Amino acid sequence: MTTNGMLQLFVYLAALVVLAKPLGAFMARVFQREKTFLDPLFGPVERLIYRFAKINPDEEMDWKQNAVAFLLFNFVGLIVVYALQRLQQFLPLNPQGLGAVSPDSSFNTAVSFATNTNWQGYGGETTMSYLTQMLGMTVQNFVSAAGGMAVLALFIRGIARHSGKTLGNFWVDMTRSTLYILMPMAVVLALVLVSQGSVQNLSPYVSASLLQPTADTSGAKVTEQVIAMGPAASQIAIKQLGTNGGGFFNANSAHPLENPTPLTDFLEMFSILMIAAALCYTFGKMVGDTRQGWSLLAAMMIILVVALFVAYQAESRGNPKFNALGIDQFASAVNPGGNMEGKEVRFGVANSSLWATVTTAASNGSVNAMHDSFTPMGGLVTLVMMQLGEVVFGGVGSGLYGMLVFVIVAVFVAGLLVGRTPEYLGHKIEAYEMKMASLLILIMPLTVLLLTALAVVSQAGTGSISNPGPHGFSEILYAFTSQGNNNGSAFAGLNANTPFYNITGGLAMLISRYWLAVPTLALAGSLVRKKLIPVSEGTLPTHTPLFVFWLIAVVLIVGALNFFPALALGPIVEHLMMMQ
Amino acid sequence: MTTQTIQDLKKPVGLTSGMYRRALVDSLMKLNPRWMARNPVMFVVEVGSVLTTALWIKALAGTGEAPAWYIGSVSLWLWFTVLFANFSEALAEGRGKAQADALRRSRRDTKAKLMSALRDRSKFNLISSTELKKGDLFLVETGDTIAADGEVIEGVASVDESAITGESAPVIRESGGDRSAVTGGTRVLSDWLVVRVTSEPGGGFLDRMIKLIEGAKRQKTPNEIALNILLAAFTIIFLVVCVTLLPYSIFSVTAVGQGTPVTITVLVALLVCLIPTTIGGLLSAIGIAGMDRMIRHNVIATSGRAIEAAGDVDVLLLDKTGTVTLGNRMATEFTPAPGISKERLADAAQLASLADETPEGRSIVVLAKEKYGLRGRDIHQISAQFVPFSAQTRMSGADIQSDGKNSRRIIRKGAADAIKNFIEQQGGVYPAQVLQIVQEISKMGATPLVVSENTEVLGVIHLKDIVKGGIKERFAHLRKMGIKTVMITGDNILTATAIAAEAGVDDFLAEAKPEDKLKLIRDYQKGGRLVAMTGDGTNDAPALAQADVAVAMNTGTQSAREAANMIDLDSNPTKLLEIVEIGKQLLMTRGTLTTFSIANDVAKYFAIIPAAFATTYPALNALNVMHLATPESAILSAVIFNALIIVALIPLALKGVKYRPISAVHLLRRHLLIYGVGGVIAPFAGIKLIDMLLKGMNLS
Fold first, then answer.
1. Taking Cα atoms as reference points, which of A459, A492, A450 lies closest to residue A475?
2. Which residues of A touch B584 (CB under 8 A)?
3. I need a surface site. Which of A400, A518, B585, B646 has the fewest CB within 10 A?
């Protein structure tokens, strides 16, 4: 670990906290349909959309109607992305003449983008036409993120309101999230990326002669390189902001045209957590007590900082076995130090560790280094961050509503501990809420553990492993952890573009997005009906450091306890063997 | 014969050896899977026990996955885990059963004098009490035991209700009014009553009590249901965690080419250790024990739900008289009118009160004696005619023939305005100073009684409400817990303000009528608050029915008792405070044991995971931070700890976590520290200790 590296991490985290309030307050205004400075620009567009889609923005819906709207919208999106991939050879904007994508890969990708996962079994530049990228991927990047934010807005209203029935209008939240929040930020970020050298065109791929000819695996001489082109910057901006993470190119943000400079690296990395962090403040604002938002942000931040420290430390230390071979792993002016395998030299250990931690903390999944090449402890951090249920920041919207479910469990047990029927922000937590909350914390580990079990004992599963031993186990565990949490990052190493992984992975993504969103909305629908319980001395405050500590404990215990045995057989034993 | 009974309830029924024996037998009976299925956590343990037993038998036959002694020991301790949990429940129930038996003995089969017509008390048929139906009329006379719950429709009698209340002083029961309810099993000491049966056979008060105590009607409370759901979720997750470990292990063995896959025995052991058996096993005992604690405080709750709600109460409505203040007002001072000596006033006040049997009257006599040495005179020696208090005159007093002369002393005491009218009617003058004294006394929260002789006002007696000792501190505790106290009184606002301030209640309702109470409860409930109250009269019934926690005094009317969800056999309104504490204790006990149970898992992982995969990944032994001797002893120690901790915590489950009147934040910090942090640390020490013992005994 270097001072310079620590300083970069600090600047990153500080900027996150500083921006949370202004952005969060702005988003609260958007969700509450209050005036914003963007109204003159987007107001007419918004009204046009409502008129065109025959939506009455003042009509509120209950949780069931909203859930149906959410599912319907996602289903249509899924079909469109599937169809685009299958038919792209007949459609325009395909200068490379790329053919139809296989049915199972198309299914996996369609699910992946509709669910805000952006798991990619394919390589972008060799698989998808520009039209598929723009109309399929980029559009889903916007709307899947907006969908998550809309569900969050509905959920927050369930908490903010009392003795009511309706939660708001999914269509309105969805439209406003896209127009007022995602669109402007994505445009600005895309322009910055272009200014730094990201490509944004519809040209055919460019060939360049190599200055230094090389040879391919078969020994044949290679003198020419094909450089992929395309409308990349516009897609990269939203994949970072919307916690999507699906790269335009196969190498994702390790690709120089996707992430050209240290500035773009910082901005892309910052975009991963920016909205998720600010949403905490939005939550506080909407429930009328910003302390509640800050305490959630504090809980997330503490977990993130600890994880970051472990990852950075592990990556900086490198592999102790190398020391014996006389390999210098210490950072110096001429040596980045630590474990540099799979990392871009231009980003180094600090920024790669930071990216890996935040991209798994949020359900982003974009990468600027290969997680498969991380040290076991570094890899463990990425796994754990996802296995906590993507609630430490998590996906835009989905992360916070996931965290709020943990809050409800924490409040429930804490309420018992102080001898009072638990309540959260004036809502009594009863059997129905516990049923939904239990369902929500139950589904993810079940999906991940069972699918991993299926993969490790079937030929179809183990055949894709490239590293034997515990690392191979980690690769499979990672694949399902990532998809089962809508993260989408890959441990690489595993050939996941097979019918087996495409279908099981698609299933995991579907379950973790929709099976979770529906009980979440049901929970909101139950909370909104509750009578307001006024605060008294006997009420357990949920904004104190003590409660933050307790919430962290609940998140860690529920997450860590479920996955400890699996982790022990993967990264933990790998680490112990390396240390021997 | 009938006097032995509930007063025994107050004493905790000591855990006798007989009860232990009974509980042991019961815990075996409860192994019935149909019974076990009600508790998903323990059901899983039982299934695990059966499974390991089968594996043990297989091992005995020589085809086991591990040595037979080892599988056998694991299996044995799993069975113990189930039995310990059953034992805790049986023990908690056992107490109730012993109490119920005591009650049942008191309820002999009595004869009832069934009447065909109300008029003729000499005509009746002698039938068994069990044949009485709702609506029947029966006669009870001196010495008879009342055959069923009912309402007195004719007669007045003194009744020994010690069977129900444990109070040996007889009470008066009469038709009409608030004292018309009688309970089956109580005995008439004098006179007679005609009673109309109000309960169906077997549905009487005593029957219901027996059922409640026995726990036959025990249903899961809302909060218990919610907790059960969470525990079931944990159980399912850990089930999958353990089941998937087998394929993971098989994969690992193939991948590294060494060791053998994890055995089923180890997986079952891990599963049982991980699922929240501590709370799962004790949950039902905690609920039963909560009910039992209520009974020991002589409170019968009609449902566990009511006990739980008691812990959540935000507002306590307390009747001033009897709860906030002692039942009776006391004379504390004589303030003479101008020109009158204190002695003269005291003398007149005493004379006016000699025949006044009310506590207030007696306190005046006592005060005069203590302060001015005036001895109570024999009322027969002075030729006096006493005038009792009446609602019309609102005065009482005496007319005294002094020394045979013709002059009569007409002494009166009464409410200020009543005396004023009385004096002015006779042409007297009511002095302005007296008016002022009266106002001052009222302002202090006391009641002024004006004393007059003939047309002259002598002065004012200061009658004071005595606030119960220590009540102010209790209210302060309640405030800390977030409970608001509201005093209900028929007094005027001045008096009420002063008493409220002295007692330290948060709010009060003065000049309250019964319907005001109902409205107040509704208002609070509309604001999302949970309201508790006590009551005894028929006019309290609507409010009792509306309140979330309604405690009826046992001396109260039948309708009050039916509207309430708890009955206080001691008829002590202050009991409400204890009821709240018991409700909180119930939830806290559940919460602390849940936290403890889950926190324990950390240590168990460190014991079992390295042991389970020792053959495949020896490197994992680095996680064996407790340095447990062998893989077998590690797993066995974890299982044994898991079983023994249930036994160790039975006393806590039965007694409940000690209640402390501190704020929610402090309570949470305290309990997280003890049961959360403690729950993480304790098993490390416990498992290590058991491992050392096993090693010492050469069992591993």
1. A492
2. 419-420
3. A518
Are the beta carbons of B226 and A429 separated by less than 8 Å?
A: yes
Could you tell me if A377 and A390 are in contact, meaning their C-beta atoms sit under 8 angstroms apart?
no
Nearest to B330 by CA among B357, B362, B352, B354: B362
Q: Is A569 on the interface with B (CB under 8 A)?
A: yes
Residue A433 touches chain B, beta carbons under 8 Å? yes
DSSP structure class, residue A392: S
Tell me the domain boundaries of chain A: 3-579
Of A413, A420, A462, the CB nearest to B584: A420
> Who contacts A484 (Cβ-Cβ below 8 Å, separation ≥6)?
A444, A447, A448, A451, A508, A509, A511, A512
Burial level of B608, CB count in 10 A (0-12/13-18/19+)? buried
- 3-state secondary structure at position B300: strand
Residue written as tokens 């798994």?
A360
Residues constituting chain A: 580
Instruction: Please report where in the chains the tokens 């303030």 appear, as a residue.
Output: B335
The pLDDT profile of chain A, 580 residues, written as one tens digit per residue, is 889 999 999 999 999 999 999 999 999 999 999 999 999 999 999 999 999 999 999 999 999 999 999 999 999 999 999 999 999 999 999 998 999 999 999 999 999 999 999 999 888 899 999 999 999 999 999 999 999 999 999 999 999 999 999 999 999 999 999 999 999 999 999 999 999 999 999 999 999 999 888 888 888 888 899 999 999 999 999 999 999 999 899 999 999 999 999 999 999 999 999 999 999 999 999 999 999 999 999 999 999 999 999 999 999 999 888 888 888 888 888 888 889 999 998 999 999 999 999 999 999 999 999 999 999 999 999 999 999 999 999 999 999 999 999 999 999 999 999 988 888 999 999 999 999 999 999 999 999 999 999 999 998 888 888 888 899 999 999 999 999 999 999 887 888 889 999 999 999 999 999 988 999 999 999 999 998 888 877 788 999 999 999 999 999 988 778 999 999 999 999 999 998 8
What are A462's two structure tokens? 């183990």
Question: Which H or E element spans position B67?
Answer: none
Alpha carbons B118 and A506: distance in angstroms, whole number: 82
B207, B292, B319, B568: the catalytic one is B319
Burial letters A486-498, b for 16+ CB under 10 A, else e: bbbbbbbbbebbb
- Sorted by sequence, the CB contacts under 8 Å of residue A556 that are 6+ apart come out as A303, A388
The Cα–Cα gap between A256 and A240 comes to 16
3-state SS record for B449-462? EEEEECCEEEEEEE
Name the helix (H) or strand (E) containing A132.
none
Question: Is B135 an 8 Å CB contact of chain A?
Answer: no
Q: Tell me how far apart the alpha carbons of residues B347 and A334 are, in angstroms, rounded to a whole number.
A: 110
Q: How far apart are CA A281 and CA A277, in angstroms?
A: 8
- What's CA A366's distance to the chain center, in Å? 8
Q: How many CA atoms lie within 13 A of A67 on its CB side?
A: 17
Q: Do A445 and B484 touch (CB under 8 A)?
A: no
Q: Which two tokens stand for residue B415?
A: 């409410």
What is the tens place of the pLDDT at every residue in B623-670?
999 999 999 999 999 999 999 999 999 999 999 998 887 888 899 999
Indicate yes or no: CB of A449 within 8 angstroms of CB of B613: no
- Residue where the block lists tokens 């799993």: B78
B26 is catalytic: no
The answer, as to whether pTM is greater than 0.90, is no
| B142 in reach of chain A (CB within 8 A) | no
Is B593:B649 a contact under the CB 8 Å cutoff?
A: yes
- Give the CA distances from residue B625 to residues B508, B607, B690, in Å, rounded to whole numbers and listed in that order: 61, 8, 15
Placement of tokens 């909205």 in the chain: A275
Angle at A482 between CA A477 and CA A488, to 5 degrees: 140
Distance CA B129, CA B18 (A): 32
